[in-house]
Design brief:
By secondary structure, the protein is mainly alpha-helical. It contains 5 helices and no strands. It starts with a helix and ends with a helix.
Length: 124
């Protein structure tokens, strides 16, 4: 890791986090009772990382630019994009069982960890 890459990730992360705040706090129409702003961010992140990772080898995108866009901006926007790309890669490589396990482990694990965090806060 170089200082240049760390700076690129930090700048991209700040941009991505700012985008997440703007998108997730936008007034979405209430169609159903789920957080539509978060859903929009996660869908945008999933699309964007897929597009970037698909485009990178076709255009010869350098590693620093790819890191800025994916780890930086997409990481700041949503880590769901990384999860989506990693799961897609498992499926694309034919690892359907691992892809399914990855989905279950990430979703169930994150929900359980969130519950544990909430529970610990209320214990003290």
């Amino acid at each position: 890791m170089t200082w240049q890459k760390l700076l690129v990730v930090a700048l991209g992360g700040a941009l991505g986090a700012s985008l997440r705040y703007l998108i997730s706090s936008a007034p979405f129409p209430t169609l159903i009772s789920i957080p539509l702003g978060t859903l929009a961010v996660n869908m945008l992140g999933g699309f964007a990382i897929g597009f970037i990772m698909g485009l990178a080898p076709k255009t010869g995108m350098d590693d620093t630019a790819r890191t800025f866009l994916t780890t930086g901006i997409m990481g700041g926007l949503t880590t769901f994009s990384t999860f989506s790309n990693e799961t897609y890669t498992l499926f694309a490589e034919g690892s359907f069982m691992l892809g399914g396990v990855n989905i279950i482990a990430n979703l169930a694990g994150a929900l359980c960890a969130c519950w544990i965090g909430h529970t610990l806060v209320h214990m003290f």
